[in-house]
Amino acid sequence: MRRTPHSRLRTTAAGALAMILGTAGLAAIPGTANAAGTTAAPGTASTSPTVASTSGGTLAVQYRTGVSSAAASQSAPWFRIRNTGTAAVPLSGVKLRYYLKADAATTNYRFACDWAVRGCSNVTGSFGTLARPTATADRYLEIGFTAAAGTLAPGADSGDIQVRFHRTDWQQLVQSDDHSFGAAQSAYADWPKVTAQLAGTTVWGTEPGGPVDPPPAQTLFDDFAYTAANDPRLTANGWMIRSWGGGPGVPGATWSPQNIGFGTEGGSTLLKLSTSTEGTAASTRQAEISTNTMKFRNGTYAARVKFSDAPAGGPDGDHVIQTFFAINDLKSPMADDYAEYDFEYLPNGGWGETSSAFFTTSWETYHPVTGQVLNTHTVERRSFDGWRDLVFTIDDQDIRYYVDGRLFGTHSSAYLPERGMLIAFNQWLTSLAGQTSTAPRTYEQQVDYVLHVKDRVLTPAEVASRVAAYRTAGTSFEDTVTAS
């Protein structure tokens, strides 16, 4: 069971590339993660989906001091982190901040970990400068964790995290005027003067000077309230519909703008992608729509997609692929700055699968000629027919895929993007081997909305709340995202 790299590649004219990306001399753009290795392809790995709460975790931080004097050769803040929520929390997504007042503007500090239940090798420490200094804080010590630190189960705590810091010149430091210092804290207790961030959001404590409202998040939202593929608002809103040839899919098949349509269901406006065939390459019509700029990178990507196990008409069995993904162009074989993140549903198998299978795949790079790939995927083999809420998030730690609020797969920092990407949907046939009939048949994939929130990691519940707010306000389209 192996997805062959050549099945995904597009051969696209330089003129078409310039139209798509606004730049010249680029290599052919792969369409979607239909390239390689569902099980044992070179450079791939497979993981199994896990279950997690959609509400995220809630943390509390306990603190005590190992050095209580007003001035000392070093400060020794010790911590415990408690998971007070109902979902397991990966410590790699947690950051603690201990706030201090530097003894002088030129003073530098050095961090050390003396002992930690989760292992000092899994604890990191760095110093930062506050954008809004106060009388008791202009710096902070940020404590982080590697993936090897593991997770906190609901109700569990991290155990002791005994760290210290000192001036690089080893002069006495004054800690009595530090915001987070507590001279009387000889035993662990909840301490809101230390903050905890989870996936970039502060979930415990208060920063010196109080919280600051963050700037509005840059967002793309589209409810797909269009009339047809030639609706001029599509181009004006940054979308392009594919009409040029090439892969992925059946060689010689056509990518047809006429296979993109719009409609309504239950009061919601919908994007519709149709794929039709009569069992030959010449009769095969596939569909793809994407943004026309590669400006999306870290943040949250979400769409509500209706997958279909059966064709809308005609005999069933074709190896159809239904997708939602983000991707950029491969500038050269095995280029380090290539990136691709995919949801792919195979209702009738294909790629060596004999029945329904659902993949999430994260790509580092690949070679279009040799077939060498660097990617990882998570797969679940069962039907996903019907409406599905799809979310994937990218931050500086990992990529996480959610299906219907469930954490489906987590892929490591080895697959993080180095530059911006397109957002796209397509539906196509990986081969004509699944159904040999010459009777006409049509498959349909529908999309309710798409959402991207730049540089913010949202839970699936937060995604649903944002979409509901757009619809309550009567907003069918917004794009405030600038290039990454």
Question: Your description of this structure?
Answer:
Residues 1-57 have low confidence and may be disordered. The protein is 5% helix and 41% strand. The strands form six sheets. Strands 1, 17, 18, 21, 23, 24, 25, 26 and 30 form a nine-stranded mixed β-sheet that branches. Strands 16, 19, 20, 22, 27, 28, 29, 31 and 32 form a nine-stranded antiparallel β-sheet that branches. It has three helices and 32 strands. The chain is mainly β and 484 residues long. The chain starts with 13 loop residues before the first helix and ends in a 5-residue tail after the last strand.
Task: Chart the SSEs and their pairings.
Elements lengths: L13 H8 L24 E2 L11 E7 L5 E2 L4 E7 L5 E2 L3 E7 L8 E8 L6 E12 L2 E9 L5 E2 L8 E7 L5 E2 L14 E2 L3 E5 L2 E4 L14 E4 L9 H5 L2 E3 L12 E2 L4 E6 L2 E10 L7 E7 L7 E9 L11 E9 L12 E7 L10 E10 L6 E8 L5 E9 L4 E5 L2 E6 L10 E10 L9 E14 L5 H13 L4 E3 L5
